[in-house]
Amino acid sequence: MRNEENEENLIIDFHAHIYPDKIAEKVITSLEKEYGFKARAMGTANGLLKSMEALINFSVILPVALHPNQVKSINNWISKVSQEHNEFIGFGTVHPKMKNFDEEIRRISHDLGLYGIKLQPNEQNFYPNDEKFLKFYEYCLDFELMVLIHAGHQMTPRTPVFSTPTRLREVIETFPELLIVLPHLGGYKMWAEVEMNLSGFKNVYFDTSYVFGFLEEEKTIELIKKLGVDHIIFGTDFPWRNHSEELEKVNQMSFSKEEKRKILGINAKKILKLDSMLLE
Ligand SMILES: [Zn+2]
To answer: What are the CA-CA distances from residue 232 to residues 48, 82, 170 (Å)?
Structure first.
């Protein structure tokens, strides 16, 4: 198949979570208790591959280290599993309390071949615009890594909400050249604040994970238009959501075929700078 034809049907899930086989069941069970609902699939490499079959070309894998001492081993595992499976695009994790995180950012970029870094301020207990953390973004710029920052509430309400659209706006304005991806259309259950604060930034993208069913369809379309179709990327939050159902939601929205192609794959391919070799 030629690349152009491949690009036409390219589907990238920019938001997936998997765990090593040995601990997956334990982790998922404890998260199910916390969230109060069941995972839709097994959150392992094989579980994800099975769910992607015939639907999704690539999945971005997003880890979170809850303690500084987990950072290295998690990053090593993400690197290994993404090398084993071409379908996976690995992101790294850092922790705001770790020492020498410039060294780990260098390792993530140079040695481990990962594409970006995921931050989870609500679970890592820090404000993304905290002055003490600003060096982190500078290093990411230096090492040409994009940053995906959880945005908005948690699935289960928790205070404080560390990662609000207003705080994220400050980061964006301080680092206009940094490529930033904000999940859940810029702020889970804070979409009015997103609309007021987060449109019009050249290097900011928004994934669609965990939005459908929580924000009315009409409002979702309105927000996507406000943020710009060129800045929207498909994401599911696997294993918490189902691939075919999430795809169906995008496909049934009143966007043109071309706009849907951008949301489902082309925008993500552009920011990941995916090699066309990969798509052959
Ligand atoms: Zn997630």
So the answer is: 22, 24, 20
